[in-house]
Each structure stands twice: as structure tokens, then as C-alpha cells.
Amino acid sequence: MTKELDHGRTNAAHGSRIDAYVDRYAARATGMVASEIRALFAVASRPEVVSLAGGMPYVTALPLDLVGELVADLVATRGSVALQYGSGQGDPALREQICEVMRMEGIEAGADDVVVTVGSQQALDLITRIFIDPGDVVLAEGPSYVGALGTFSAYQAKVVHVAMDDQGLIPESLAQTIYALQTAGSRIKFLYTIPTFQNPAGVTLNEVRRRQVLEICQRAGILVVEDNPYGLLGFDGEPLRALRADDAEGVVYLGSFSKTLAPGFRVGWALAPHAVRDKLVLAMESAVLSHSTFTQLAVGQYLTTQPWREQIKAFRELYRERRDALLGALEVLMPDGCTWTRPGGGFFVWMTLPEGLNSKAILPRAVAERVAFVPGTGFYSDGGGARHMRLSYCYPEPDRIREGVRRLAGVIEQELQLRDTFGTGSVPGHAGVDTPGPDLA
Amino acid sequence: MTKELDHGRTNAAHGSRIDAYVDRYAARATGMVASEIRALFAVASRPEVVSLAGGMPYVTALPLDLVGELVADLVATRGSVALQYGSGQGDPALREQICEVMRMEGIEAGADDVVVTVGSQQALDLITRIFIDPGDVVLAEGPSYVGALGTFSAYQAKVVHVAMDDQGLIPESLAQTIYALQTAGSRIKFLYTIPTFQNPAGVTLNEVRRRQVLEICQRAGILVVEDNPYGLLGFDGEPLRALRADDAEGVVYLGSFSKTLAPGFRVGWALAPHAVRDKLVLAMESAVLSHSTFTQLAVGQYLTTQPWREQIKAFRELYRERRDALLGALEVLMPDGCTWTRPGGGFFVWMTLPEGLNSKAILPRAVAERVAFVPGTGFYSDGGGARHMRLSYCYPEPDRIREGVRRLAGVIEQELQLRDTFGTGSVPGHAGVDTPGPDLA
């Protein structure tokens, strides 16, 4: 039928890949372009490649048969609820259980202040949606989580990075940055921080600094968004006290079952002051009506029937062994001039290359040598990070990690030879944004 | 700890319900306020109330034990995939199956152009996100789906309603509206339409008009967003041909398993031209990283192992019986002056009250008499709909539907007596937006 009509709009586009809508998109969408780096990662997902790139938890460690039984039981006995629409705020019983989980980090909160979200990524999206007008400033550690930077960018926020060291965010830098921005008239809407086992840097904000960061933000009237997916995955001692535990009105806390149970359920949450919580629920309904009752009840059933604290301990042991494998191999194999962080938990090591080397330029060669990582530039919104890379130890088994490091060390050795011969290592082929896809976030 | 600090920001808010962030929200969030109508619906969910308000499908009709078995099997045999992160675009096998479902409505499409979303509500949200700048115009039927109006409003779109009659959208009105808006310099971004068994009106766009609507939008260069959750739930004959079946480049099609299987999985989708699809995937990743692999594979497993076409037939018979119960009871019981639509499928009847009556004002009295409906004003963004109400027949059993109509007819009789005595029926107590929650959408 369409052939008979006058296609003022679609003549050029019919059957072609030209975008007929190119001049119709919203301003926020014009920057949404897929990066060249993605094609490389498609190659990197082949089994012969050791991927130190992905942030995927090792879900195979779960008792899959038991999880299968509990979801079957859930559908058979409570199917008419589990398969139905739920409330925008999320299942009340699960919200109670979430409060129990948060209590492990010193948080005292009521289920009424929790909003269940489609992973904590959606909590980030909704917080940004309700607070950010185009041009507003978000403060974030430099480097910071690539998925958060993508969301802030989608709402046209201006991200300003605050320096960190191996004890996390530097309070003096935070105070100076805020002062400079506020003096210049910028509207700072919130500080986005991953204080514990940071992604990608693997560092943790120490206790003294936690108090200082809260105090600085309170004085400046800046909301703190505390993203804490890895807090229960520490390798030493008890979980750290969350920022939210010491400031109920100034902190929005984001949590997730993606790393302590499984990302396939997409169950995360936000804990927020009452008024913010109200807005989050309305934004949630506008975005997806309600989250999947089925997955929410499945997570609730898991928490009720399975020894979840023991499972988290098992995950901790597993990831500690892998971290040790990665750090040990780096120590033995990496050429002089490379440095890296030593995470006390979580999934990631942040490595700094010798001067003159560029991690994005090295990636194609590394993939050819069957090892992958995420270049550092993805974790900065200001072009920083070229000499850095994120190495994940969460997914490959220890022997594979060591083999991956061996391959990567070989590639870096070659790059150093290039540099010493020509004055520089490989240079990146393009300067675009290099946001990896969901499995690498 | 916080007590020792200077709380420039939180003095007023600590321990109180005052919103300390009231001057910090984004412009788009200022209109996000919960409506008074919600408190009423909380009451309406009590078992003694017959709810003709909710749009909840009757999932109890599903073979729950079999669904339980298939999800157990899924976790036990493919758990390491089902519980892991997935791709932003959605599971490739499920996208193939979605194409098979859409073929029932004459759509020929490749899985590569499908994006799986968190219900079709999220598809709506993402489409709006990539196309709408504040002030842009969205055309929509008057009345239209309350959840869509909420999303458009959240992105600060201006919704302009186009008149419809019992054959759906009126092409002449569409053409005139477009002409007037474009002449006035408005940027019309898309037409949002539910052509088949419309929510809330229950009417269906006839075949001649389908061609006309497509032609008008093509000539004017306006994208059509075809929302089709009910298309397979027709009571007579074969499914209608979708608009998308006749225009692959000018239509974004939104589909859902919420009504043909179950809303608790939150699996919907968008089928879009290539370039728009690319933007949708990037917006999806920014919003939630990826949808739940677990629920996607569960839906895929259901489609693979269960007689899903037969199940849809069973749903059709069930809903046809309930529609007949509702229409029959309205015919017998409603006072003169009430009129209503006669849906050929889907979930909803749209009723018009006699002059001088206001459906929002009647709602509290109706709830006191143990029957609930959704007032018409929620389905208009311009204050229209006061004399209308949406009656859903999808959830209550036929006898309950008849009882609900009996109660409602009694309330309307009383209102008519009020009107005849005082010149008007009850008047609404407030003039706010009355958006109901997710289970009523």
C-alpha cells in the first residue's frame, strides 16, 4: 500500500539505512551514538578471549537447582500475584527484606522509603530524571562508573570529576570543586559516589573521609547519591558503614541484588528521603508502570528460603581468590612502569600504564592476542583516562586470569618497544565516546 | 553523627515531612504529584468492592503449574544465562518469536528491528525520550491511555487530542489538527494511537481509516506510534492488520505480552525503523542496562513449550463472556441518558453520563456503594472527560460484573435525582490531575 502514496518523508529512507528522522530527535538524543569499541567487544566475547573487561558476576556459583525449585513453587502457589501487575513502589515484603540487607551496613530504614527498581541502573536513571535540568552539574569521582556517566549525559548533565586517591574521593578536592563551581554560578544537583570498592578504581573511601564528605555536602546543600552494589563483597572483616547510615535526609542510597544474587532478575532499589521517594515512585510509574512482580517475588522467596548470608560469603571467597590471582600475576608479569590499585573487595583493579601508552589504542592489539579490558577513557566524561584501563577479576577462573595477564603483559611489552623506538605507542584511531554495552558496565 | 554538624540544608526537614529538596528538582519533576484519587483506589482494592476500574488481565486462567515447571526447568538447565546480564536490545531468540507473534497481524519484520522493553510502557518512555524536547507536540486520540499521557507529560510534551468516534480516530480531524498546528509553527513529533480495541474507548479504527491515517501522517512527515496491546484479543474473526504492516518506515509498533500472557513478566517490545531502533537500544541501556534475562527467557520458553495460540483463544472467550455480561447489564440497568461503546475486543467500555453529571464527583459515592471505575478526566490532558468513565470487564467474573453495574446504576440514579432537584449532580472536590496507579492503567 505505501508504494502508492506520496512519501515526502520516506523517499530517501525506504529500504535504505539512511536515518529519515535525523532532524526530528530530541536534543538529548543527538549524542546517542554507538561507539566503535562495541564491535571489538563483540569479538572479545568469543570463548578463546580472556575477558578482563566484563563486570558480570559469577552466577554459576549459585545453587541453580534450588533457585529453579523456588521459582516453580512461587508460580504454582502464588502465580496469580506473581504474574500480575504490581505497585510502582515495589513489593512490600521485598522492601522489608531489603531493609534487613541494608542493616548489615548500619542503615536503619523503613520499607516505606524504599523503591524497587529495574536494577540500580534504573534508580540512577530516575534520580537523574527528577533532579537534572540540562546544564546542571553532577559531581562524580574521576574515574566513575561508565553506566552512570551515560545516564547523566542522556539527561544533558555536566559531569565534573573530583580527584580520588587510594583512599577514595579526596575531601579537599571535593570542597574546592564545589566552591569553584558555586562561585561561578553552577547549579550542582548531587554528588554521585561509589564509596566502597569503587567501579572502576577498586578503592574505598576511608572512615574519616566518609564523615568529611558528608559534612562538606551537608554544608553546601548538595545531595549525595551513594551507589553501593559491592558493599557486601569485602574480603576482610565486617561490611563498612554506609554513608546513608549517618545521614538519612542528605543521602539517596542505591542498592542491588545483581552482585549478591544475580543480575538476571534486574532487582535493585533506591532508599530516599520521603519527598524524594514520592517523586521516584511517580517517575517509576511513568517509566515502566511497575517492575516485574515475578522477579521481585523470586528474589523475596530466595531471601526467605535460602541461606543468603552464606551465599554472599561464598561469593566473597570466590572473588577474593580471583583478586589474588590477578594481583599476583600483575606483580610477576607486568613490565616496570605499570601501577595498579589493590581492591579490598568488589570486582575491579585500575591499572595505570607507563607514560606514552594509550589504553584505547592498545585494545585492538590485545583482542588480537585474545585478552580484553575496558580502556580508561570510558570512565571519564572529560577525555581523561587514556593511560588507564579497568581489569575485572569477577568472571574468569583464576588460571584464565593469569593467562589473560600473561597475554596482556606481552602486548604492553610490545607497546613499550614501539614507544622506545618511535617515541610513542599505538595511537587511538578515533576520538569518540567509548561506552561499552551492559555486560561490560 | 549528623547531629553535630551544621545543617544548612536539612534543619527544617529532619524528622519532618517537609520537602528539603523542593527547589532542587528538574523542571520536568515539578508536575509530578500524587493525585487524591489514589487514596480512593486503595479503598477500591478491598474484596467487597467490585472493581470495574483495573486493567488487570485475568492471569488465573493460565496453567500456573505448567508455567512453574517451565521456569524451574529454565533455571536448572540454562540458569547461568538466565540469571546473567543480557544485551540492551533483548534476547535474540525471543525477538525472533516476537516476529512470529506480529506475523498474526500481517507484520513482516526481522528480529534485528525489535527491542525488548520493560512492558510496552517502557517502549513508550524510550520513544518519548528520544523524540520529545519540552514543548513538542504529541497527537493522541481523545480520550487516550492514561499511562501514555503521563509519560508524555513527564517529558514536557504538549498533548493535542484528535477527535474519535465509534470507528476510531477521525481522519478529517487528524488532518485539520495537523494543518492548524503546523501552520502555527508547532513541532509535531508523532501521533500516538491505539487503533485496535482502544484504551479507554473500546473502539477500533476501521480499515478505510487505517489507510487514511497512514497517508495523512506520511504526507505531513509525522511518525506514527502504534500501541497495540489488545490486537490479538478480538472477539470476532481474524486479527486486524496492524498499521505497521503497511508502513515499515513511518510506524513504530509497540507490543506486549502483558495481555496475551501475563503482566508480571513485564515483557513488551518496540519494532522500529533501523535508525530509530539504534537510538532505542542506547536509550534502553542508559535507562536500565538491559531487561531481565530471566523473564525474557521465561516468556521464550513459554512460547516454545506451551500452546500459546490456544491460550490466547481461551483468553478471548473469557473476555468475550465478560464483555457480554457488562453490555447486557448496562442495557438492562443503566438509567436513560447513559450511552456506551460496544468493544469488539480488548478490556474496556467507555460510558457517557447524562448531562450535568460528573464522573469524578461520583467516584467517592460509588466506592462507598462498593463499585469502582476510572473517571474520564484521567484520559484527557486538556481537562475533558468529566461526563465519561471507563468500565473494565477484564478482571471480575461475570456475576460480579453484573452486581457492579447494579450498584453503579443505583449511584447514577441518585445522582440524577440530585441533578433534577438542585440542577447539578455531585461536583468534584478538587481539580488536580487524577492519574491512577499501575494496576489501573
Describe this structure as you would to a colleague.
Chains A, B: This is GntR family transcriptional regulator. Chains A, B: Keywords: Aminotransferase, Pyridoxal phosphate, Transferase. Chains A, B: Its cofactor is pyridoxal 5'-phosphate. Chains A, B: Residues 422-441 are annotated as: Disordered. Chains A, B: Residues 76-408 form the Aminotransferase class I/classII large domain. 2 copies of one chain form a homodimer. With 441 residues, chain A is an alpha/beta fold. Helix content of chain A is 40%, strand content 14%. Chain A has 12 helices and 14 strands. In chain A, the strands form 3 sheets. In chain A, strands 2-9-8-7-6-3-4-5 form an 8-stranded mixed sheet, sandwiched between helices. The radius of gyration of chain A is 23 Å and the shape is globular. Chain A starts with 36 loop residues before the first helix and ends in a 19-residue tail after the last helix. Mean pLDDT of chain A is 92; it is low at 1-16. At the A-B interface, α2, α4, α5, α7 and α8 of A face α2, α4, α5, α7 and α8 of B.
Sum up the structure in keywords.
homodimer, 441 residues, alpha/beta, eight-stranded mixed sheet, four-stranded antiparallel sheet, 40% helix, transferase (chains A, B), PyrdxlP-dep_Trfase (chains A, B), Aminotransferase_I/II_large (chains A, B), GntR family transcriptional regulator (chains A, B), PyrdxlP-dep_Trfase_major (chains A, B)
